[in-house]
Design goal:
Strand order of the largest sheet: 1-2-3
Distance between the termini: 12 Å
Largest sheet: 3 strands, antiparallel
Structural class: mainly alpha
Mean pLDDT: 81
Strand content: 5-15%
Number of helices: 3
Number of strands: 3
Length: 98
Amino acid sequence: MSLGREDLIHSLAKSMGMVDSQKAKFSSGKYNPESGSIFSNGHVLSKRTIEQSRLYFLNQYKKLAEMDDEGAKELADIYEVAYEAISMLVESGNPPEG
């Protein structure tokens, strides 16, 4: 079974060096499929920003996945997870409850 949305977000944050104490500082976002926006931590992430983020993670994944370095491949996996999570959110229109 897949992780809940918050667990996925916190796993990504932890893998990027954020400590567990920061978990309480952030609130889970809500995706609005009609506008394509995410409402999170008191502000709106536009459809354009979400798409730019998705493409950024995809491009970073592609660059790192081609490298012959174990560290780069591990980081590529992290970027792939972020890309896939954003894609799943947008494609489903209804993010999984955490």
